[in-house]
From TrEMBL, chain A:
Family membership noted in the UniProt record: Belongs to the PhnJ family.
Swiss-Prot/TrEMBL keywords: 4Fe-4S, Iron, Iron-sulfur, Lyase, Metal-binding, S-adenosyl-L-methionine
Pfam families assigned: PhnJ (PF06007)
Designated name of the protein: Alpha-D-ribose 1-methylphosphonate 5-phosphate C-P lyase
Basic and acidic residues composition bias: residue spans: 281-290
BP GO terms, sorted: organic phosphonate catabolic process
Keyword presence, Iron: yes
Function: Catalyzes the breakage of the C-P bond in alpha-D-ribose 1-methylphosphonate 5-phosphate (PRPn) forming alpha-D-ribose.
UniProtKB/TrEMBL annotation, chain B:
Keyword Lyase tagged: yes
Molecular function terms from GO: lyase activity
UniProt protein name: Phosphonate C-P lyase system protein PhnH
SUPFAM superfamilies: PhnH-like
């Protein structure tokens, strides 16, 4: 570990200075020790605007080492602006290997999806979180929400879900669906679709959450109970889709709607681009897949 | 002066990458209580501070984190100046002020509730204890359950504090307040975060 195969300066490896990393690392350890509790930290200004993943980037920068393999996804996709620019950022400042393959990554930074491919022990999933406080839209005062967490007073959240049922006949919350961690803290799983909530429950991977603008870090250790809030007569349900992915025919995955023309034409495709590409390489074909399949070797990897 | 040299030498040879390696070992140990994360001897602190415990202190402590030393370490001017030089951490006046506590002789240590437990509003403001233990196999076996553990895990740290299992039960009852423990041995680190439940093994 002494001779690094890199020509970049190491005093600010991964952009942050050592004192900042120590401060974030201490917050991460407290977060792991108190699952679901939001640990305040002194968020730094990053070379990207708030809302573009400054919290997730700071967490990733504090844990990443030269041997890590990083994957970054934005709504499941490896090839959209946020994912590409954060991947390029870490390639530049930490000279780490990057990948689009879920199975090969040791750290996966995500904006609002959990990959379809099951995560394994040893992987770390880093979420970019915009509003870490699940009670914030119900109670705007931090002093009050802190007291509510301290006293485990979560009745307001159930009232909110009940109002959903009264108004819509069902719980209409579809993303940032509140969960209870290890029977104690109510936590915002970040704006992932509720489709992904069951994947957080007893996941073998460590899950870290960073909110840069709101200056909070929290965590869910592996094999930790993560239960979506619900009622006995209105149990928690995930979204279902009545058709498979139009490109790879995958079922039981989260799909995005893609508009094809201005006459109402549309298709549903996998939100997880890596999962979709892998399935097409394996020969799975949806009803709108191109006639001649491009050989995987000729495909430009997401860069 | 001999002592000055002793306090300057023995830090991380490669501060950025050594600190990252040590932190990842501690993070993995905290996320998987009972697992032992191997750690090379990056630091060479004066005795009786061990290489592993010294490295953990170097990776996590700085001028923001008051550090408490148990009497065995407090008595050594070499250790005080080594930690002072390499981390810049101020020494805590009382255990309740400490963010981290280094304990060389856990069998003689004070009660866990003497350290900062955090508050109900800010449970993160508690002391993290770094215990120097000889090994993790020769003591009384502890059966661990809780977050980070798939079914159960077992460690048997030697030289643990008196009535540790009973004290730990009380620590769990205080949740979300409470202390977290990092066990430092020559092989590496293992952690007991405040969520880990201990069941003593029947013989």
């Amino acid at each position: 570990m002494t001779a690094q195969p890199t020509d970049i300066a190491t005093y600010n490896f991964a952009y942050l200075d050592e004192q900042t990393k120590r401060m974030i690392r201490r917050a991460i350890l407290k977060g792991i020790a108190i699952p679901g509790y939001q640990v305040p930290f002194a968020s730094r200004e990053m070379p990207m605007p708030y809302g573009w993943g400054t919290g997730g980037v700071q967490v990733t920068a504090s844990i990443i080492g030269p041997d890590d393999v990083l994957k970054v996804i934005d709504q499941g996709a490896d090839d959209t602006t946020n994912a590409v620019s954060i991947r390029a950022f870490f390639k530049k400042v930490a000279n780490v290997a990057v990948t689009t393959e879920t199975a090969k990554a040791t750290i996966i930074q995500t904006r609002h999806r959990i990959p379809e491919y099951p995560l394994t022990a040893g992987q770390v999933l880093v979420y970019q979180v915009p509003i870490p406080e699940p009670l914030r839209f119900l109670e705007p005062r931090e002093t009050e929400t802190r007291k509510m967490h301290a006293l485990e007073e979560y009745g307001l959240m159930h009232v909110k879900l009940y109002e959903d049922i009264a108004r819509h006949g069902r719980i209409a919350t579809t993303y940032a669906y509140p969960v209870k961690v290890e029977g104690r803290y109510v936590m915002d799983p970040s704006p992932t679709p509720k489709f992904d909530n069951p994947k957080m429950h007893r996941s073998p991977a460590l899950q870290l959450f960073g909110a840069g603008r709101e200056k909070r870090i929290y965590a869910v250790p592996p094999f930790t109970e993560v239960v979506s809030l619900d009622f006995e007569d209105h149990p928690f349900e995930v979204q279902t889709f009545d058709q498979p992915c139009a490109l790879c025919a995958a079922e039981n995955v989260y799909l995005d709607e893609v508009i094809l023309d201005d006459h109402g034409g549309h298709m549903f495709v996998c939100s997880d681009t890596d999962h979709c590409e892998k399935r097409r390489e394996e020969g799975h074909r949806g009803h709108l897949a191109p006639e001649t399949h491009v050989a995987p070797g000729n495909m430009e990897p997401a860069q | 002066m001999e002592m000055a040299a002793q306090s300057i030498e023995g830090g991380f040879a490669d501060p950025v990458f050594n600190a990252q390696t040590v932190f990842r070992a501690v993070m993995d140990a905290m996320a998987r209580p009972g697992s032992v994360q191997p750690l090379p001897a990056f630091a060479r602190p004066p005795v009786p501070l061990s290489a592993t415990a010294g490295a953990v202190a170097l990776a996590l402590c700085d001028n923001d984190t008051p550090l408490w030393l148990d009497p065995a370490l407090q008595a050594s001017a070499a250790i005080r100046s080594w930690l002072g030089f390499h981390t810049g951490a101020p020494l805590a006046n009382t255990p309740a002020d400490a963010h981290f506590a280094l304990i060389a002789t856990p069998a003689e240590m004070m009660a866990l509730d003497g350290f900062s437990q955090g508050t109900q509003d800010y449970p993160d403001r508690s002391t993290t204890l770094i215990l120097l233990v000889r090994d993790l196999v020769s003591g009384a076996p502890l059966l661990l359950e809780g977050p980070g553990i798939e079914t159960s895990a077992t460690i048997a740290p030697a030289q643990m504090p008196r009535h540790f299992v009973e004290q730990w039960k009380q620590n769990i009852k205080r949740f979300p307040r409470g202390v977290d423990i990092i066990l430092a041995t020559a092989e590496g680190v293992a952690c007991l975060p405040r969520t880990t439940r201990i069941k003593t093994m029947e013989a």
